[in-house]
């Protein structure tokens, strides 16, 4: 290496927090199986893709929010972890994913917006350089609107806003005062059908990528490599 | 003439390439550097250098195709190689900028509203290409069709006075390198974050880039200079986005200049140096006006390099994160005032500059 370049090497790596919002209703078996299988290799695969793009990761943390439908069964509508640091807590990550069973769901809309709201409120990394706060939504269904009758249920999370507008404010936009997401760090990656609210969100919310899927097919058309590549491109 | 005319080195087939070119004649020294990180996949276009001998007008420019928002395959070249939307976009912007500049000297084209302004010409060109570009399956507010940055300096020398106009979209930059105050930016990145050190630390998303599927703008900022000797620089973020502080880029420029024996050697060393530290494709264009030869440029900048080198030699061990943070902040604090002295004002900010220094925006896109 050229000696003059030495002081600059290894500078400014990316601190990546990822929240995986996973629809765990019955039709989602295909992608759920794929995500489970990839749990232990996720970090190496993402780092490899990032390295190929010339980006190094200083810290990778993953949080999972699995969701079904408050209207069907409020007791199992949300299952979640805190942030797990990879690779150190990869076994814990795999263990949580392994315990998620694709079941239930009731009517077609699911509680995806509740999961998204919980993801937005995550305890994101705030100290390291080049932070990336990425929410990845996996679902094959539309979502119930916020503020509906489910919000009165006893186990409905108090942290979830009562309207889509309020959730949008928390996501934020350039110059917004009420955002909880950091403007330069946030990213939203949707693997979701071309239906409400996802198809509106992909244009109205900034920093969003949407990979439209076939509704009701469990995202079976997606390979894990494609998912990781899309996440890496969002960083 | 379109410069450079003499390659200092050529790409090696099958390997991540670099191309460095230089031209040195009394009164006019130019060099360009282009490097790619992955063989055959470089998403920066080769820098553009044009100098019109008869009128002493010229232009230097760089173009950085954006691989994150433009990763989809847009085109297959004559050999069947897939080319990304970012790869195509930077070349298209280069072609458009060159043809626009040439058109300024052809009366009938200069009057054609489709091509008389740079953003108008780019809009026309990008829209003409877009229908043949394949659309990505991925959509969303981050996605762009044919996204690229542009940073250019158009100049004219009249009676020892330099008329200079910066034109840019995105986060590629244009500068003037001075012997007393160092590197001074004359563009302002299109990002929400406006502090150059914070931009380094955050790597923020751009708010405006040239593309085929959205509105875009090209900002203009005109300044005139006197003094007789000028060094103009345009660079993509592969050069200045992978260093510790904004001042490190100037150190790269001057350290390579100080140890080179010719313009070609300077270009070669810049290519080797940036390849060793960058994580991205990188491109750079330099035009030095009013110097007798390369040796005079080096002599002229030597005191500034000595001063800068003394500052940077105090850098702590990069593995000590807290010490590095403190040093970065202190270094930027010392460097910032001169670096920003010729920057265009922030949008909406009151300005004390005269009418010649007012930035203006020209829109484009669909």
Q: Would you write up a description of this structure?
A:
The complex is a heterodimer of chains A (235) and B (366). With 235 residues, chain A is an alpha/beta fold. Chain A contains seven helices and seven strands. Chain A has one domain (13-234): von Willebrand factor, type A domain (Rossmann fold, 3-Layer(aba) Sandwich). In chain A, 28% of the residues lie in helices and 21% in strands. In chain A, strand 6, helix 6 (198-204) and strand 7 form a beta-alpha-beta unit. Chain A is globular. With 366 residues, chain B is α+β, with helices and mostly antiparallel strands. Chain B has a single domain (2-364), classed as Phosphatase 2c, domain 1, CATH 3.60.40. Chain B has nine helices and 16 strands. Chain B has helices at residues 85-103, 107-110, 118-129, 196-202, 237-240, 246-259, 263-277, 294-312, 321-340, and strands at residues 2-3, 7-9, 18-25, 28-35, 48-52, 57-62, 73-76, 82-84, 150-158, 161-169, 173-178, 182-185, 216-225, 230-235, 282-289, 359-364. Chain B has a seven-stranded antiparallel β-sheet. In chain B, strands 2-3-4-15-14-11-12 form a seven-stranded antiparallel β-sheet. Classes of the chains: A alpha/beta (235), B alpha+beta (366). Chain A binds chain B through residues 1-2, 4-5, 7-12, 14, 52-56, 129-131, 174-175, 183-185, 187, 190, 202-212, 230, 233-235, and chain B through 37-38, 67-69, 71, 137-143, 191-193, 200-205, 207, 242-244, 248, 252, 255-256, 269, 272-274, 276-280, 312, 315, 318.
Please summarize what this structure is.
The complex is a heterodimer of chains A (235) and B (366). Chain A is α/β, with parallel strands linked by helices and 235 residues long. Chain A is built from 7 helices and 7 strands, in the order βααβββααβαβαβα.
What is the percent of helical residues of chain A? 25-40%
**What is the CA-CA span between the terminal residues of chain A?**
28 Å
Percentage beta strand of chain B: 25-35%
Largest sheet of chain A: 7 strands, mixed
CATH topology grouping of chain B: Phosphatase 2c, domain 1
Keywords (chain A): Secreted, Signal
Subcellular location (chain A): Secreted
Main location (chain A): secreted
InterPro entries (chain A): HMCN1-like_VWA, Thr-specific_kinase-like, vWFA_dom_sf
């Amino acid at each position: 290496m050229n000696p003059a370049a030495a002081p600059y090497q290894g500078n400014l790596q990316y601190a990546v927090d990822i929240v995986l919002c996973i629809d765990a209703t019955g039709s989602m078996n295909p992608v759920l199986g794929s995500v489970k299988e990839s749990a232990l290799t996720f970090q190496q695969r993402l780092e490899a893709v990032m390295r190929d793009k010339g980006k190094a990761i200083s810290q990778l943390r993953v949080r999972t929010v699995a969701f079904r439908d408050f209207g069907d069964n409020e007791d199992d509508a949300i299952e979640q972890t805190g942030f797990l640091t990879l690779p150190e807590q990869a076994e814990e990550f795999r263990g949580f994913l392994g315990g998620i069973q694709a079941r239930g769901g009731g009517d077609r809309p699911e509680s995806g917006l509740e999961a998204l709201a919980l993801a937005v409120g995550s305890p994101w990394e705030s100290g390291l350089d080049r932070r990336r706060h990425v929410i990845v939504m996996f679902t094959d269904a539309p979502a119930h609107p916020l503020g509906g009758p489910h919000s009165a249920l006893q186990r409905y999370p108090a942290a979830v806003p009562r309207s889509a507008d309020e959730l949008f404010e928390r996501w934020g936009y350039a110059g917004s005062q009420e955002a909880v997401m950091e403007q330069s760090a946030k990213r939203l990656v949707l693997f979701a059908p071309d239906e409400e609210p996802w198809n509106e969100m992909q244009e109205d919310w900034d920093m969003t990528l949407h990979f439209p899927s076939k509704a009701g097919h469990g995202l079976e058309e997606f390979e894990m490599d494609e998912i990781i590549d899309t996440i890496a491109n969002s960083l | 003439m379109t410069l450079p005319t003499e390659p200092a080195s050529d790409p090696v087939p099958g390997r991540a390439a670099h191309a460095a070119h230089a031209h040195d004649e009394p009164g006019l020294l130019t060099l360009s550097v282009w490097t790619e990180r992955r063989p055959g996949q470089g998403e920066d276009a080769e820098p553009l250098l044009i100098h019109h001998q008869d009128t002493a007008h010229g232009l230097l420019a760089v173009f950085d195709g954006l691989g994150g928002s433009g990763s989809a395959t847009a085109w297959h070249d004559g050999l069947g190689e897939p080319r990304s939307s970012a790869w195509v976009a930077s070349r298209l912007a280069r072609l458009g900028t060159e043809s626009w500049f040439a058109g300024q000297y052809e009366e009938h084209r200069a009057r054609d509203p489709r091509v008389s302004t740079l953003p108008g010409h780019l809009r026309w060109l990008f829209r003409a290409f877009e229908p043949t570009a394949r659309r990505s399956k991925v959509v969303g507010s981050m996605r762009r069709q044919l996204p690229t940055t542009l940073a250019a300096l158009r100049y004219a020398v009249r009676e020892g006075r330099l008329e200079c106009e910066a034109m840019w979209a995105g986060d590629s930059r244009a500068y003037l390198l001075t012997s007393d105050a160092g590197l001074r930016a004359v563009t302002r990145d299109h990002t929400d974050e406006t502090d150059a050190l914070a931009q380094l630390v955050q790597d923020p998303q751009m708010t405006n880039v040239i593309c085929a599927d959205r509105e875009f703008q090209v900002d203009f900022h005109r300044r005139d200079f006197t003094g007789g000797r000028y060094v103009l620089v345009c660079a993509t973020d592969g050069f200045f986005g992978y260093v510790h502080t904004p001042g490190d880029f100037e150190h790269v420029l001057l350290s390579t200049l100080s140890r080179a024996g010719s313009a070609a050697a300077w270009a070669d060393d810049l290519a080797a140096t940036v390849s060793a530290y960058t994580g991205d494709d990188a491109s750079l264009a330099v035009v030095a006006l009013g110097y007798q030869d390369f040796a005079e440029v080096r002599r002229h900048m030597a005191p500034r390099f000595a001063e800068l080198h003394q500052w940077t030699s105090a850098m702590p061990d990069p593995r000590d994160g807290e010490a590095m943070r403190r040093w970065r902040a202190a270094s930027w604090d010392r460097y910032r005032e001169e670096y920003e002295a010729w920057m265009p004002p922030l949008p909406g900010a009151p300005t004390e500059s005269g009418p010649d220094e007012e930035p203006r925006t020209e829109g484009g896109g669909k």
